[in-house]
Amino acid sequence: MTPQEFLLPAAALFAVGLYGALSQQSIVMLMMGLELMINGLVLAAGGFWRLVAPAGADGQVLILVAVTVMALEMVMGFAVTTAIFRAREVDMTDAAGDLRG
What is the mean pLDDT of residues 11-26? Predict the structure, then answer.
């Protein structure tokens, strides 16, 4: 397996996520873009780990933990987004900007 086989999809995921995070005003779409960017980084890290230590399963366990943490992070983000929407009827990032303390 060559580095190009996992770096190209990882870079594509990161680029699409970056575009999505920077171009959208919806909180949900922003979170989706961030998730795609993190998935690109996890894919690149897993591919490099496979090149460095192909015999061990340590990289697979680390990626499984990272994906689990990402799922929990998205659940918490959607809970906060739902709470903001229910309290203020706001679903855009510009309108939710006054929540800063």
Answer: 92
